[in-house]
Amino acid sequence: MELSQLRTLIHVAELGSLSKAADRLHIAQPALSRQVRMLEEELGFALFLRHGRGMVLSEQGKEVLTHAMRVMAEIDEIRATATPADAPLTGEVAIGLPPTVADIISLPLAAAFGKAHPKAKLRLVSAYTGYLLDWMHRGEVDVAVLYDPRMARSLRSRPLLLENLFLIGPPDAGFSTVRAVSFASLAGKRLLLPSIKHGLRIIVERCATDAGITLDVGIEADSYSALKDLVRNGHGWTILPLAPIHADVTAGLLTAAPLIDPVPVRRLILAYPADRPASRLARFAGQAIEDVVKDLVGRAVWVGQLLGPPP
Amino acid sequence: MELSQLRTLIHVAELGSLSKAADRLHIAQPALSRQVRMLEEELGFALFLRHGRGMVLSEQGKEVLTHAMRVMAEIDEIRATATPADAPLTGEVAIGLPPTVADIISLPLAAAFGKAHPKAKLRLVSAYTGYLLDWMHRGEVDVAVLYDPRMARSLRSRPLLLENLFLIGPPDAGFSTVRAVSFASLAGKRLLLPSIKHGLRIIVERCATDAGITLDVGIEADSYSALKDLVRNGHGWTILPLAPIHADVTAGLLTAAPLIDPVPVRRLILAYPADRPASRLARFAGQAIEDVVKDLVGRAVWVGQLLGPPP
DNA sequence: ATGAGCTATCGAATATCATTATATCTGGTC
DNA sequence: GACCAGATATAATGATATTCGATAGCTCAT
Which segments constitute the HTH lysR-type domain (chains A, B) (predicted)? Predict the structure, then answer.
C-alpha cells in the first residue's frame, strides 16, 4: 500500500472520475487507473464501481476512504511538525457555534485567526446544538461550542463556561445589571421565550418550577433576533444570556437584570470529535475560543463562571 | 513522504539503531539510512540524533513518531476492511481492568477472544483506575473499564454498570443476598476497608455520612484478596461488589448481604482513548466486555443496574 | 446507429529503490 | 593518545517500478 494510492483514492472518490483526478493531480490517467487497481488487488475487493461515465465508491470503498483521509490528516500533521508551534498555518477549519454564541465571538475569533493564521480558511457554522452534534459526527465540523448535551459520549469535551441568564426587557422596564430580580417575581408577567425544544426554555421552565411559579408565555419565538425585536417593541420580557444582547444594552435599546432564586445558568462546553484527532487549526480554534470567552467574561460582557478543565 | 519511510522511522526509533532495524525488516542498512535521510530532508529537520552507537529520536522526531504510528494504525484498519466484520483478526490489544473487575471478567473475556479472534494477542492489564488512565493516555492501553473518574475529558467513554456494593462477612455472619442490611446498622461494627485513596472507600464513607454514622475501620488493606482473607478469618466485615467474591459466596467461604439506606453504588464506565481512533480489536474488546457484563448481571453474579448508552 | 466520454491495457522510456562494497564517524579501551 | 569495534553515511550498479502516450473497448445519451 502506498500513500500515492490513498491520495489517488481520495481525489478519484471526490471527483468521481479518473480522468478528472488525473487532470487535477497533473499525472496521466493510466497511472491512476493502475494505482486504483493495485490497491484493489492488494485489499482483495473493489474500491469503486465502474459505470461508463466514471466510477463511484463501493460500500467498502467508503470505509477505506475515511481511513485514507485520516492518514492524510496525520501526514499533514507530520509536515506541520516542521514549523514552530505558533507559525502561521494553512488549511481549513470549520467551527460550530450556537447562534447566540456566534453573535458575540465570531468577530474576535476571526480577528484572532487573521492575526495568527492569515492564510487559514475559516468556516464559521452557526446552528443549534443538535445540528452541530450531527455535523461533528459527519466530520463537517472540527470544533464546536455546544450547550451541554449531557451525552457527549462520542465527543471529547471540556467545560467552558457556566453562563448566567438575564431577564431582558425594553428600555422603559428599567432593568439594571446591578439590581437582581427574583425569579418568583416573574409570575404573571408576560414572557417571550423559545419553544420547549430549546435547551434554554427547558432551563427556564425548571427554574420556574423551583421558584414555585408557572410562566405566562405570550409568544414563542425560536429566532433570538426575533425575540430581541419583540422585546424592544414592548411585547414582553425574555430571558437570555447577556453576551449576545450586550451591545443593545449599552446602546440603551434594551435593559437587562440578573435573575436570582434560582439563578438560571446554562453550561457551555467546547467539543472535538472523538473519532479523529483534532488538527492543529482545530486546536488553535479551541484555544482561541477559550481566550475570547475569558476576555469577554473578564470585561463583564458575558456574565458567568469560567470552567477550567480539572488540572 | 512514503509509508516505507514511516515504517522505518518506527522501527529505528524502537530499536535505536539502523542496523538492528535493517536486520528485523530484512532489508539492507543503507536503504534505511537513505529513507531516514530523505524523510529528514523533506521535513527540513533532524528526526534522529546520531551518536556513534546508534541513533535516538529528536524532540520533533518523537512528535512525528506518534503521527507515524497513527498512520500505521489506520493502514491496519484499511487492511481489516477487507475481511468481514466478524472474521478473525490478528494483532494486539491491551485491555485495562481494575483488579476487582479483572477477577471476574478476565476468564470469559479471554474465552470470547479465543473463540472470535484466536490469533489476536490479548494483554490484560490489571491496575487501579489512576494508573489505567495514565497508561491509556500514553497509548499503552487500548480500552479500559474504569471507576468513573468524573473527569473523562480526554477519554471517550460510555456508561457500563451501576454496581451495588455488598456487605461481606465470614460464613458465621450468616448474611444472605436476599436479606438487606441497613447502613446504619454498621455503626460500631469492625470493618476492613481499603485506604481513603481508593474510590471504593470514598463511596463507603459518603454513605456512612448519609446514614449519620461513623465507621469503625479496624484494618486498612488496599489489596482486595488480602481483604477477603482477613474477612474469612474473622477479622471483621468489608464492603465490596458482589462479582469478584461471588465464587467464595457460592462455595460457602464468605457470605454477602445487600446494603440499603443508602445503597452504595459504584459507576463503571468503558473508556477508549480520545486522541486516536479505537482499533477493531479494541472495539471488539469493548463489545465483548459489555456482553460479558450483561451476562453476569443477568445471572445475578454481578448485582447492579446496566447502563446502556443513550440511543 | 453513432459519437462523446470514460476506463483498461500495452510497450517503451524513465525514474526510483535496494544491494554490495567501502568510507567515515564516534566512543570506549589499552 | 592511538587504536579498535560498532555504527552510520556514501558511491556505483543492477533490478524493479512507475509513468507516459497511444489505443482499444465499454457505456450512455442523442
Answer: 1-58
Distances from the Cα of B281 to the Cα of A38, A153, B102, B122, B275, angstroms: 27, 20, 18, 9, 17
Is residue B160 within 8 A of residue B270, CB to CB? The reply is yes
The answer to whether residues B93 and B109 touch, using CB atoms and an 8 Å cutoff, is no
- pLDDT one-digit tens code per residue, A2-44: 888 888 888 888 888 888 888 888 888 888 888 888 888 888 8
- Rounded CA gap, A92 and A142, in Å? 9
pLDDT tens string A147-202: 876 655 567 788 899 898 999 999 888 888 888 999 888 888 889 998 877 778 88
Q: Which residue does chain A place closest to B2, by CA atoms?
A: A3
Which distant-in-sequence residues (6+ apart) come within 8 Å of B276 by Cβ? A277, B70, B73, B139
Residues A47, A57 contacting (CB under 8 angstroms): yes
- Cis peptide, bond prior to residue B262, ω within 30 of zero: yes
Note the CA–C1' distance, B49 to D6, in angstroms: 17
- SS3 assignment for A137-189: HCCCCCEEEEECCCCCCCEEEEEEEEEEEEEEECHHHCCCCCCCEEHHHHCCC
CA dist A58 and A68 (Å) reads 15
Residue-range domains of chain B with CATH: 3-82 (1.10.10.10), 92-161+267-306 (3.40.190.10), 162-265 (3.40.190.290)
Cα(B59)–Cα(A207) distance, rounded to whole angstroms?
Answer: 53
Nearest residue of A to residue B155, measured between CA atoms = A156
Contacts of B276 in chain A (CB under 8 A): 277
Average pLDDT score over chain A? 86
B87-107 pLDDT per residue, tens = 777 888 999 998 888 888 999
Which among B45, B63, B153 has the least Cβ separation from residue A158? B153
Can you tell me whether residue A92 is helix, strand or coil?
A: strand
pLDDT of B19: 85
Cα–Cα distance for residue pair B169/A105, rounded to 1 Å: 60
Q: Are A167 and A257 in contact (CB under 8 A)?
A: yes
Long-range contacts of A136-140 (CB under 8 A, 24+ apart): A136/A96, A136/A271, A136/A273, A137/A273, A137/A275, A139/A66, A139/A273, A139/A276, A140/A94
The half-sphere exposure of A201 on its side-chain side, counting CA atoms within 13 A, is: 18
Residue B119 C-alpha cell reads as 490469533
Buried b (16+ CB within 10 A) or exposed e, B256-290: bbbbeeeebbbbbbbbbbbbbbbbbbbebbbebbb
Give the list of residues 6+ apart from residue B311 with CB closer than 8 angstroms, or none. none
